[in-house]
Input
Amino acid sequence: MCNPKTATADYTTFSGMEKEIQEKAARPKRQLAPVFKPYNNRQSFAIFDVEAQIPEHHVARVIDEMIELLPDTQLFAHYPGGGRSSFHPKMMLKVILYAYSQKEYSCRRIEKLIRENLPAMWLAAGQTPDYRTINEFRRVRMPEMIDTLFESMVMELHRREFIEFENYFLDGTKFEANANKYTFVFKKSLETRQEKLESKIRETLAEIHGIAEMEGVELGERPEGNPTVSELAEVASKLEERDEALTGEIEAEKDGSVRKVIRKRRSLIRKKLKLVREDFIPRKEKYAVQLGVCGDDRNSYSKTDPDATFMRMKDDHMKNGQLKPGYNVQMATENQFILFYSIHQRPTDTRCLIPHLKAYRETNLPMPKRIVADAGYGSEENYRYLVEGEDDKPVAEFVVPYGTYIREQLRSFKNNRFNAKNWEYIEEDDLFICPNGRKVRFKKYLQKKNKSGYFQDLKIYECEDCSDCPLKKLCTKAKGNRQVHWNPIYEEMKAKARKALEDETLKKVYALRKIEVETVFGNLKGNLAFRRFLLRGLDKVHVEFGILAMAHNFLKVARILRMLSAKNIKNKNRRRKNNSFFSACFILGTYWTAPLFCMI
Output
């Protein structure tokens, strides 16, 4: 049994504690007022240093410093003088370069950036050019100065030892043009339509000459080949004269039946005249213009941007090999800085090497020691240019593999006994020994012309007899004897390329190609999101990519400066920690070696 007194006492204590808790809960809590930092955007006057708000190694500071190094005369030479005062070219250059570094490529967006972005305001010094002014400067002024400007910036990078012109890593990539992908004009279809038109013109001219003989009209001799536009115009004028004469006869004739016969004759002449005037001549002129736009090097162009060529892009989302109008950009880098670039209308890299290097040699930039490129450039024509140049002097050392270099390293290639490169060659007799032990003798020389107009000198070897050879089905698909087309010049060039690629030092240099130029392409297309040109025309596209290349270089400089600055700060902090540690050790050691009574 429980003690009632104890239970009563405990119950009373518990009830009292419950009342105290209820009283505390009933007391109102003190309300704390929120605290904010001072803010007032309606103040009438403020002293605000814009430059102080920009970090030390910001890309805007790099752009400002690099552009200020340009002499004014270099920029002022592109202004005729007179008229209303223009915006300073240095200010315009700084603003456009900074906008491209911030992924702003449209003139309207650049105008907005100047009004809203703090570094852009500082670069513009508070001035606000509108989008028309920015567009005019980029479209009219910059084509005249872009090459010298880019060259000056690259030489400044060389002076600051960011680049050394030691290795010239070259590669190409395709950028889409600012053109509709359905505005294509293909050269082959043009030539087909032109042939059909010429055939139809010849048939119609034969009919016209027959009508002219009946009408007694002198048209002259029929052209042997395809008639020109002027010859067609002359035929049309003769038909018009006859048409007017028949019209006069109809008006003079009063007999209805005779008038009807004359009208039929006139109707036939008018039909042929309309065909010549409204169909043959316009189409002939149109096809001539379109073929002229295509030229000898291209097989297509876009009606929106006639300088753009239809190419296969890597970004093929439909996986159907769709062609899009674009440009082939050849670009060289070192230490991931863009040294030089050129814009081409040819889709393949093979035929872009020589024009690219010729354009580079026209500049004042020093010739690099070594050119490094992939197998897409390893053709006989390119090798000979690198070895011989234009004046029989080597352009530079090269580390450029050829198309079959990697395949030649495979065991299957080396063990393929039907490959002529693995056959025994007897130099004294100039012949090969085939897998069946038969002689493959030299037969003749052959000169072959490629699309670029380059002639290859080939040596043709033919087996003495393959008729009863049991290995013929495995060796060749030809009905006759097995032939070998041997290019001695190309084989010699490939041997030089192979020797360079097998060198241990140059092998390491070639391995850098993947992280050099490919990284820059990835930065331009991925980080800067530049995959399509905004301007149209070869010259304007050249300007736009030049701006992008300089923006990339300035971003790279700013990044390096920030890394060096952060490294210095870390070293300072590390030195401070080390100094503190050694100081503590020194003090501890001092007291540790002292007598005990000295420490009391």
DSSP finds 20 helices and 13 strands in the chain. The two ends are 68 Å apart (CA to CA).
